[in-house]
User: Fold this.
Amino acid sequence: MTSQYLSLKQTKLDDYLKTRTLFSTNFKGRKIEVTNSESTFILLVDGIVRTKRIPSSDFARISLSTTIQTGYEWHENLEAVIDLSTSNLKLEVKANNKKIN
Assistant:
């Protein structure tokens, strides 16, 4: 049983080490990240997974979106668009349809 537990810990650590951060910024007090782990794209807000997608061969673009609260009774629609149609992926992150960096 101990060896199974160690194997599980190593697998989680391996997954974490294989994760690449594609985008990271502080937007109105919220930490926004877009990461890639193996073939899964993940949108995180303050370290919490808000949405994730595994692209299929049918799509050249994927969108990750969520709503975040940035102030008292103020919300922003956050969207990350990932273009996979070229050998170098392109990423654009927007809040309420305005590009953020």
